[in-house]
User: What shape does this take?
Amino acid sequence: MTEMLRGDVMLAFAVMTAVTVASRLGGYFLMRYVDVTPRIQRMFEALPGSIIVAAALPVAVNGGPIVMVALAAAIAVSVLRRNDFLAVATGMLVAALARAVGLPG
Assistant: This one.
């Protein structure tokens, strides 16, 4: 526990926090100078999905068949219902049920 409270660790946390806040605020500041064309608007609309894919793909590759099936179910719900919350809940439910019945993976 005292390992987390060392000065160098706390300094690293503070620096990471400052960089994160500066990146976010810098993005808002720089976007004031960008003319939002229809092409840029389409990019912004696609961005959340691409971030989810970038986060989920390594998990899917290393997670085994249960994770693959859960992600497939979540993608199907997302495409059919256009509801991200429902898609995440479906993926979690499928993974939990698969593990509860003892499927390998």
